[in-house]
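Form 7-S
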Amino acid sequence: MKKNARIYVAGHTGLVGSAIVRALKKLSYQTILTRSHQELELTDQVAVAQFFESHKPEYVVLAAAKVGGIYANSHYPADFIAQNLNIQSNVIHQAKIHGVKRLLFLGSSCIYPRECSQPIKEEYLLSGSLEPTNRPYALAKIAGIEMCWAYNRQYGTQYLAAMPTNLYGPGDNYDLKSSHVIPALIRKMHEAKIANKEEVEIWGTGTPRREFLYSDDLAEACIFLLNLDESKYSALVSSETQAPLVNVGCGEDITIAELANVIASVVGFEGKINYNTAMPDGTPRKLLCVEKMQMLGWQRKTNLVDGLKIAYQEYMQYKQEKKTDCNILNEIS
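Output:
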């Protein structure tokens, strides 16, 4: 991508999108197109069409999505499938109409079957049943991959789907009802430490294994993919038999119990960790095979402990900013 290329990052205020914008700015890209949810409703077909007509992006990173953990997925399944289908359909279709050179669609490792050989290779897509707790979200993301592939085959577009593993980092969601495991545990551990609580409760048995990637590493991977030379990129998106899909992860996983202990150490919580086994575990294991990315020449830079330390400091800053905002509102009222 040329430094003055028009690059639209859909979902730039979220965990992934904000990391991509930071990375693009760090690399001196000059024309980064962004719109907040209030400025552009991506489920609105007409509004999306008008945006593409007005700004004509050359590259698109589709990081906008409705996301959440087990609680949110189980309580709002219709929202997860409907909103995500609308968002990606509108953006992908307008990208085709307006001649976008390359589009990168961000999915999730939950697209793969619940009972899957490990590590999970890209070709395992649609080889078994999905995890029930996030099935609507996963199906929407699978539809997005299929849409990219179908447009590539029918229209000769250059759309690629990147499937990141579990992510964490600056800009994460710390709402306990909708957050993923790392931000939820950081908040729980911190609040327990401040309140001098003797224990913290965690959903499930603690035995599921998960892989985690720092969000800035994913952002670097996204820009790396968009900048691949024509032959390598074409090999990813032009296959008639293989979906234009690439896993992005670190190739290592740990149990939720091990993760909880690491976060407790980083936060400084010294109490007991209790596991509520009446609550669901989710998929037993999700470890991505990242051989494809490694062969292309990319691998993660930030190890889990270092990433968690940065994430915790960011959470402390987030807490301070929230406190400041509350004080300002109190003074105004």
